[in-house]
Amino acid sequence: MISTATPTKPKQKKAIEMRICEGKKSMFQVFVLPIPKFAIILCLTLIFPPPAASLKSAVNVWPKPRLVSWPRPLAKFLSANFTIDSSYHQHLTPAINRYLGLVRTEHYHPLITPFVIVSASAPPLQTLSINVIDLAVPLQHVANETYSLSISEAGETAYLTAETAWGAMRGLETFSQLVWGNPPAVPVGLYIWDAPLFAHRGIMLDTSRNYYRVEDILRTIEAMSANKLNVFHWHITDSHSFPLMVPSEPELAAKGSYGPDMIYSPSDVAKIVQFGMEHGVRVLPEIDSPGHTGSWAEAYPEIVACANMFWLPGSNGADQLAAEPGTGHLNPLNQKTYEVLKNVIRDASNMFTETFYHGGADEIIPGCWKADPTIRSFLSNGGTLSQLLEKFINSTLPYIISLNRTVVYWEDVLLNDVVKVDSSFLPREHTILQTWNNGSNNTKKIVEAGYRTIVSSSEFYYLDCGHRDFLGNDSRYDPQTTGQDSKEGASWCDPFKTWQTIYNYDITFGLSEDEAKLVIGGEVALWSEQADPTVLDGRLWPRTSAMAETLWSGNRNEAGRKRSGEATDRLNEWRYRMVSRGVKAEPIQPLWCIRNPGMCNAVQSF
């Protein structure tokens, strides 16, 4: 916030002092390794305020950049005619126009006034000049997102240099977060070099159990971009509904969706994909199969085993037909299964430009397949459930690969104790496995087997956890209890995953250096048994911001210590800024804590 209430006389100092930082600041040197195509080695003196004063800096960017140099707390105003200059690019240019409007009109007022000197006499910043080294690089996995940003004290132009258009978008977001106040000001004498630690940083959203409008998805993608996330993993279909209109199989949505107003048309998909492109976010479709396909039975009952049956017919867990209410598995022995599924895969590949295709393959429930007479006959003749899954994978994976797609499956396809395939059916060069059980142990198993992995450990990254069970007619609630048993009504993945739990998770924990290279990144997951558009923002944000920072710049400080304590103040500030931008992120502390830095800590800072 910039205060200019008292007139400045000509003979007075040329700077308007807002506040000047008191006390010593830690100072150290860091050497940056050679940057591809920049071919420079920098020795920069970095200045970071102590944790209690972290919000008093005007450099409060989330995720925290990898390298910041700001030797003096100086800032200048933006020109009323401030502009952004760059070469034309189909997706970058709309992003530039969006950010230009944001920095001119946001007028964000930090919760704690920055301790900076804003020069009233220095010429205002007129232009942000963007130089992209290779504008032709498509938005795909491992697209380079490196950027550097330089704002000098004396010049009227700031410079943003990026390897690709996607790196330029990350730099634009950083620049937008540096701007604050009315009239807008920006730190000067500032240099930032930044790049993500992990190439894959995403959110998985389930739109089958409950439907989300297109505008809800677009708002989520916009918030992802602001947090420098780059993959929207869209779990579109499941046993509960089939909301995607597939042109060659229209009956799947017509009969399997919740209704005609709860269907994503091809034009809806095109709008979402385009919006993602303009925000540097890939849209990765998941059509889960062969499990989680009960909704397919509305159009094709002959290809789905155990459809529309009660999920838990007996008291014995061996009788279970589904992991939760909503039964149905595709039948691998029916040739019609592959005719329909290949049509779906082909059309999905045409609608989504993303080079990853998620095939699901999780939670094969033996009881469901055994409920089908043709499968029972196969098993009685010496066949196995794992052979059924191998037949399914061998009949679909090569087809997906033929469409120039890399196939992503959930970990179950390789690690399940009962139904799994031999690794020979999963070519490592074309397959990525997404882990969700058993924390770092399953990550270790996957990379030891030589597969790339996306980490979504439910113990840390499942955002739906902690809202207890959703089953009705549950006799466990009949007796009066004391309320002391924490397991009463618990869901399988309790407890609630706090932002600190998410922030402190190291997704390469316990891995060797070579094994860690196979971890391409991570995703938080929001399954929608108890979520819909009314709670979407609060379930995602700012907890997802915690993962966003750890996958971008890590969760440790320069001394190697976890920095969640220092991050608290910054995340508070960032959460309020997201709210001001239209994202209904839930609070992480009372406002009093923010206004009284350090007073809400578990341990007093000295």
UniProtKB/TrEMBL annotation:
Top enzyme class: hydrolase
Keywords: Glycoprotein, Glycosidase, Hydrolase, Signal
UniProt name for this protein: Beta-hexosaminidase
Listed PANTHER family: BETA-HEXOSAMINIDASE, BETA-N-ACETYLHEXOSAMINIDASE
Family: Belongs to the glycosyl hydrolase 20 family.
Keyword Ion transport: no
Catalytic activity, reaction form: Hydrolysis of terminal non-reducing N-acetyl-D-hexosamine residues in N-acetyl-beta-D-hexosaminides
